[in-house]
């Protein structure tokens, strides 16, 4: 994989029960314990996302999914030796992003028409972005996906990141340096973005993940 290529995989949690069972068997004890505490829908989504992440990362590293060992950052970002990765979940779907050398963050957001958009934008976003958002759920959500992608790439916390200026920007500056961010395709009703550390441009290759037996080669 080119150092300036990021691969993004779309994962649908609506998998057959046998496939979910196979994914669950690849999780580590901590992940299984966390899944066991969830309700049925959340548990299915968690297993699908984290199991797919293990399958994708394992394939890239040439190891079995169950042998992937995460290092969890201070704010919960998973990392693994030999690859940079990011995971996001939203209402039944997930995305897994992998890059060779640059820190990566990916975010997927459901467009929520039920929010008080003007109030939320005024409260959390810089003034110029709040004006840009107006009452548009899509604009609010698109900016949120960009902000979260940058925060996840940096391994930071979301709340301070809501003030990051991302509208009409390709390079966003955080405390530890610049991140290049771009919108990426997402299913209808969702918006997504991916960010990589540094100012250099990068290529995005999109895939759909269909199960343990159907992970495409790198």
Structural write-up:
It is a single chain. With about 220 residues, the protein is an alpha+beta fold. The protein has a domain at about 5-15 and about 75-210: 4'-phosphopantetheinyl transferase domain (Ribosomal Protein L22, Chain A, Alpha-Beta Complex). The chain is about 35% helix and about 30% strand. It is built from 7 helices and 10 strands. It has a 4-stranded mixed β-sheet with strand order 4-5-1-10. Strand 7 and strand 8 (about 175-185) form a beta hairpin. Helix 2 packs antiparallel against helix 3 (about 40-60). The chain is globular and about 50 Å long. The model has no long low-confidence stretch (mean pLDDT about 90).
Name the CATH architecture of the domain at 5-13 and 75-209.
Alpha-Beta Complex
- Strand arrangement within the widest β-sheet reads 4-5-1-10
CATH topology of the domain at 5-13 and 75-209: Ribosomal Protein L22, Chain A
Percent of residues in helices comes to: 25-40%
Order of helices and strands: EHHHEEEEEHHHHEEEE
Based on Cα principal axes, name the global outline.
globular
Taking pLDDT < 50 over at least 5 consecutive residues as the criterion, the unreliable ranges are none
Measured distance between first and last alpha carbons: 7 Å
Query: Structural class of the secondary structure composition?
Result: alpha+beta
Averaged pLDDT, please? 92
Report the strand count.
10
CATH superfamily of the domain at 5-13 and 75-209: 4'-phosphopantetheinyl transferase domain
Question: How does the major sheet shape up?
Answer: 4 strands, mixed
**Count of helical segments?**
7
CATH class of the domain at 5-13 and 75-209: Alpha Beta
Please tell me how large the radius of gyration is. Answer: 17 Å
Strand content: 25-35%
């Amino acid at each position: 994989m080119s150092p300036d290529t990021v691969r993004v995989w779309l994962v649908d949690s609506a998998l057959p029960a046998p496939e979910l069972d196979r994914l669950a068997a690849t999780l580590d004890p901590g992940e299984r314990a966390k899944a066991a505490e969830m309700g049925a829908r959340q548990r299915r989504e968690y297993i699908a996302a984290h199991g797919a992440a293990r399958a994708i990362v394992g394939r890239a590293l040439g190891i079995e999914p169950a042998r992937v060992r995460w290092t969890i950052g201070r704010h919960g970002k998973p990392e693994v030796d030999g690859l940079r990765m990011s995971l996001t979940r939203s209402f039944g779907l997930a995305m897994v992003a992998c890059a060779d050398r640059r820190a990566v963050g990916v975010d997927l957001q459901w467009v929520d028409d039920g929010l008080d958009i003007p109030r939320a934008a005024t409260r959390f976003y810089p003034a110029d972005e709040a004006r840009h958002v107006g009452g548009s759920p899509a604009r609010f959500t698109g900016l949120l996906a960009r902000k979260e992608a940058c925060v996840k790439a940096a391994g930071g916390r979301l709340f301070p990141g809501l003030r990051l200026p991302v509208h009409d920007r390709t390079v966003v500056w955080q405390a530890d340096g610049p991140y290049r961010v771009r919108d990426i395709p997402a299913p209808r009703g969702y918006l997504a973005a991916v960010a990589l550390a540094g100012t250099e441009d990068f290529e995005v290759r999109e895939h759909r993940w269909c199960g343990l037996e159907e992970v495409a080669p790198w």
